[in-house]
Every structure is written in C-alpha cells, then in structure tokens.
Specification:
The protein is α/β, with parallel strands linked by helices and 219 residues long. It has three domains: 69 residues, Histidine-containing Protein, Chain: A; 67 residues, Histidine-containing Protein, Chain: A (2-Layer Sandwich), CATH 3.30.1340; 51 residues. 36% of the residues lie in helices and 28% in strands. Strands 4, 5, 6 and 7 form a four-stranded mixed beta sheet that branches. The N and C termini lie far apart (52 Å). The model has no long low-confidence stretch (mean pLDDT 95).
C-alpha cells in the first residue's frame, strides 16, 4: 500500500467513526494525493457534508480537503426555478442588497453566489436562504464582505439567532444558543421533532459552524 492509499484509508476510517456521516449508506467517494483530499458524491445530510470535510482535514498528512459533496434531496427542481426562488427570497429580505448578488445555478442543483455584502450576517443569510430552497444540493458562497469584518463566537451566535428567527419552521424564543470555538449548543424546547431538526440544520447551513450539539427537548 503506497502512502496516498494509506492516508486515504485513514480518512475513510475517520469518517466511518462518526455515525452522523453514515458512511456505509452514503455514495461518498474519497480520493487523496500529495496532501490534498477530495470528497465527492452524495451524502444524506448537511451535517454529514460539513463533518466529512472537517474530519478529513484533521487526518495527519492532509493539508487541505475539497468538499464536492452534494446533499441528497427528495425532489428535484429546475435550475431556473431555483434561481427565481433564491432571488425572490433575497428581495424579500431587507438585510440583503440583492442587486449586488449574482446567482448561478445548474441542472444538478448546485448554486454559486458571487457579489458583495456589507456584513457577516448578510453573507451568512445569503448561503442559508439558498439552502432553504427545495432542490438545492450544494452552495458555493463566494460573496465578499466589504469592508471586511472580523468573525468570532459572539458574532456567529448573533447571526444564528437572526437566521433561526427567519426560518418559518422554527420558533426560537424558547431556545438558548451557545457558541464556543465555532461549536454550537442548542438548549431549550422545540414544539416538534421537525422544528428540532430544522433548528439543527440551520446551524449546519451557516458558514463558520464546526459542530452542533442539539440538546433541544421536544414537547
């Protein structure tokens, strides 16, 4: 076994050890060469997508990991319709100056966002609101923040509260959100399993979140 294959096996083992990735059930392909890991294929959840990249980056010998994973979807939507839904969501959101955002989509449900915004919360909202559109399988957020802003746990927490409040599936008034080094903990009470899952997904959709501990009670 050469060194590239050895490290590829280490990556595979790291991903297999986290049950949220569901490696045996996924259609995830791992390749590795000369310090670079590439993750491609389809994975069941946004949590699995985010975790797979982070765990791959932690394997000794991996200098960078490319995430080309698509999230599985229940129903497809035409790429023009996806663009229209995202554009409409941006227009309705007063925090987003949508005329400075370019939206590209393809037939595979991939979304690329380019342009500029004035704050970190706008940057994050653009990505999360794109993920909310049915049929979206991957979002590449290339929007720049002008002028640049420093990110930190308090900023991320504030942004998450804004995002949770905008999700029609979530009523976060009974939630407590804690953030430490990008790791999010949700406490409190959700009205249903659907709301609990939606709140966790919103966190995973948000750039800057490295892990989510969902301690929300249901009922």
């Amino acid at each position: 076994m050469n060194d590239d294959e050895r490290i590829r096996k280490l990556i595979e083992g790291a991903l297999a050890n986290d049950i949220r990735i569901k490696l045996p059930e996924s259609h995830l392909r791992i390749s590795y060469h000369d310090g670079t890991a590439t993750l491609a294929g389809t994975i069941d959840t946004i949590a699995g997508k985010r975790l797979a990249k982070r765990l791959a980056e932690q394997v000794p010998g991996v200098r960078q990991a490319y995430d080309l994973l698509d999230v599985a979807i229940a129903h497809r939507m035409g790429h023009k319709e996806i663009t229209q839904h995202i554009r409409h969501a941006f227009i309705q959101e007063r925090n987003i100056d949508e005329e400075h955002i370019d939206i590209e989509t393809d037939i595979d449900g991939h979304v690329t966002l380019r342009g500029r915004v004035h704050s970190m919360v706008q940057h994050r909202l653009c990505e999360v609101m794109s993920w909310w559109v049915p049929g979206v399988r991957n979002v590449l957020n290339m929007i720049t923040i002008v002028p640049p802003e420093e990110d930190n746990d308090e900023e991320l927490k504030d942004n998450l509260l804004v995002i949770l409040e905008k999700d029609p599936l979530v009523d976060p008034k009974h939630f407590q959100v804690q953030v430490s080094d990008g790791m999010v903990t949700l406490r409190g009470r959700a009205n249903s399993d659907i709301e609990k899952a939606a709140a966790e997904n919103d966190c995973w959709f948000t750039p800057g979140v490295v892990d989510v501990n969902n301690l929300l009670a249901v009922g």
